[in-house]
What does this fold into?
Amino acid sequence: MNALKGIALQIGATFLFTIMSALVRIVSERVPTGEVVFARSFFALFPLLALLAVRNEISSAVRTAHPFGHIARGTIGVGAMALGFFALARIPLADATAIGFAAPLITVVLAALFLKENVQLYRWSAVLAGLGGVVVMLSPHLGAGFDTLDSALGAGAALAAAFCVAGAMIQVRRLTATETTAAIVFYFQALAAVAGLATAAWGWTLPSLADAGLLVSIGFIGGVGQILLTESYRYAPVSVVAPFAYSAMLWSLLLGFVLFDEMPPPAVLIGAAIVIGAGLFVIWRERRLGLDRAAADSASTPPAGPTA
It folds into this structure.
């Protein structure tokens, strides 16, 4: 274990994902969402396959015992990606990022409903507080003062994407019982690329040379970010590295201001602070429960007897 390395990889992954989102926002002005989904997924396969080849893990990535489980995860994940990209084309980068922070809280609710996980009062309180923060973040886009219908549609799409992300995480938890991490990541990227390609029937645009470069960069950066994220969990527990995913708010504020001259309204910042606080509490509570379970297991294990 190397906590500092795990944290650094998590921050690096978050930074790359925010850059990717900024590029999506730029190119979405001219390129259909389905085409962006294809580029994000297809070109992400190249760094992923290169890493798997170096580790001699190609066979484990294509081997699966539950293909329909991957299809379900891929379908939900593609929905999350498409809705997220749709939102990025319509609302500021920081707003879309902040609303996306609702996903871990929604995952707690879905885990209780579908995985029958025992969620105690502390976590339910954090979830309710966090969802209240989401309402605060949505208010500038849904109130009487919003400028266009696009703002409301974008905010709604960002929230729907958070629900899809939570659903995808529930499906990933199910798959981890039998599938390798390499298989889960590979099949998602491959299925998402196929789904994105299918939208060509509804009309794609021939991108300019600059836009083609952006599309390739979106996929490559997203793929490298996924690798860094996965690697971060090799070096430190989830409860240690996960809080640093919230650094995305800092990166999105910085890039939104520099690239798009965007500054979110106070309501979005206040709501984001509430959601981040609730998310951090859930992570802390999960860590405490994990430590308590480990202590209980240790106490119930009889000491080893003398050896001959």
